Amino acid sequence: MTSQTKDDDGGFFTEADSVEVVTARNAGARDKRLREVMEVVTRKLHEAVKEIEPTQDEWFAAIQFLTRTGHMCNDWRQEFILLSDVLGVSMLVDAINNRKPSGASESTVLGPFHVADAPEMPMGANICLDGKGEDMLVHGRILDTEGLPIADALIDVWQANDEGFYDVQQKGIQPDFNLRGVFRTGPDGAYRFRAVKPKFYPIPDDGPVGKLLGALGRHPFRPAHLHYIIKAPGFEALTTHIFDPDDPYIGSDAVFGVKESLLAEFRRIDDPARADALAFRHGWFWEVEHDFVLARNGAGRSDGTVDQKASTR
Ligand code: BEZ
Ligand code: FE
């Protein structure tokens, strides 16, 4: 017997002892976190297989699904993230990593359409570069949990157009950086920009994840929203959205990104003088007022604990 065989004291594989046998085999992993993670994954995965009792054909279908998911991935398409999104895992990981002190704005998924180098614009600028869609004014304040304004906050905003497409999905059709911009707050913490009302849209559904949604009797749509990443010195970065509560998909977001606190009010303003002053063309516009509250680095969380990562930053 080699020492390798002798040390593997989990015994031979049996249906009943499968978890213990595999976990014992992994016990020599040098990385403690990997060892712990694999212990849990083995336990839960074997439990699921024992409950489901898949046929060989069913297990092979699952392998083929994962294979197709991998083949769908390239530099601009990440089908595994989409899979994580529609299974609710992305939102769960987001929730675990973004427990906030009470009063702080809640986070939600980043999504695949953020662009790192969007231009910084003067406060009040119009991020709609092609003049298409229903005019919208968005404004509010960036505050701390005491309600005080945060100066020098960077607000990175991006959204789909009124047909439900991001600029990066329509290269050559929409101008580059259409409906994207970065704004910096002054001492009053106020932000303000002009845009157009976004529309609901489907997540990319021409791959295995779209097929899975179909098989589950689910639609691929996300309700209309604006994306934000807000950063300020001394505060935790906030990745979030605001949503249109009147959207037909508000109760059934394909990726589970909606939270009650992220519902904004989209008010139709029929006021030609105000519309004119904002250089809006139709005598009316949508107005959205929404404040964001940032958590201080190292602040306690609503579950009473302190984010260790943040406190050592
Ligand atoms: C988005 O909102 O941009 C998005 C989020 C998750 C999956 C696909 C799109
Ligand atoms: Fe989006």
Write a compact overview of the structure shown:
This protein has 313 residues and is of the alpha+beta class. It has nine helices and eleven strands. The chain has two domains: 18-53; 89-312, Sandwich (Protocatechuate 3,4-Dioxygenase, subunit A), CATH 2.60.130.
Structural class: alpha+beta
**Tally of strands:** 11
Q: Report the mean per-residue pLDDT as an integer.
A: 93
Low-pLDDT regions: 306-313
The CATH class name of the largest domain reads Mainly Beta
Q: Work out the strand percent.
A: 15-25%
Radius of gyration: 24 Å
Task: Name the helix and strand elements from N-terminus to C-terminus, one letter apiece.
Answer: HHHHHHEEEEEHEEEEHEEH
Q: Bound compounds, please? A: benzoic acid, fe (iii) ion
Topology diagram in text:
Blueprint: H1 3-7, H2 18-25, H3 32-52, H4 56-72, H5 79-86, H6 89-97, E1 135-144, E2 154-159, E3 180-184, E4 190-196, E5 201-202, H7 208-215, E6 221-222, E7 225-231, E8 238-243, E9 266-270, H8 272-277, E10 284-289, E11 292-294, H9 308-311
Helix pairs in contact: 2-3
Bound molecules: benzoic acid and fe (iii) ion.
Residues 111, 113, 222, 225, 227 line the site of fe (iii) ion (FE).
